[in-house]
Amino acid sequence: METVTASYAGFWKRFVAYLIDGILLGIVELVIFIPVLGMLGLGIAGAGSNGEDMEHAAGMLLAFIFGPLLFAILAIAVAGWLYFALMESSVKGATLGKMALGIRVTDLNGGRISFARASGRYFGKLVSGAILYIGFIMAGFTQQKQALHDIMAGCLVVNK
User: Fold this and answer.
1) What angle do the packed helices 115-130 and 54-88 form, to 10 degrees?
2) Which residues make Cβ contacts (< 8 Å) with residue 88, sequence separation at least 6?
3) Would you list the DSSP string of 85-120?
4) Cβ atoms within 10 Å, residue 12
5) What pLDDT digit, counting tens, does each position of 109-152 carry?
6) Which of 21, 30, 90, 106 has the smallest set of CB atoms within 10 Å of its CB?
7) What are the structural domain ranges in the chain?
């Protein structure tokens, strides 16, 4: 298998692209969380206000807190996965942050990656981060500027 002879995107360029994506996803998270926080406030304010016994009030409070909170956490996790996997497997091969910096994700031959490979790369970032972010830092030291999740998914991040 031949590798791409393109210019590999370095650590700092990738880092800034990831920051841009993080800011954009943070905005989406706020849009999801603000209504949930409002619902939590209403749930806390209403729990036990009608003289209900403490057990019923505690049950209602837990339902008002954990139901929307679990939904919001799940929605945010799915939104992050779909954002990265759909954008990186698209024709552009890049998230908005990567597009802004002129870089894209490819397979080892310079081709477009599949949604499955992009998903594997995304979930591989959990491993890269779990080991004290060493998996991310590897991009500054490997020959093809690959982070651990890139190696795991068989991907490269290249300059356009």
Assistant:
1) 120
2) 94, 95, 98, 105, 113, 118, 121, 122
3) HHHHTSSS-S-HHHHHHTEEEEETTSPPPPHHHHHH
4) 11
5) 999 999 999 999 999 999 999 999 999 999 999 999 999 999 99
6) 30
7) 11-159
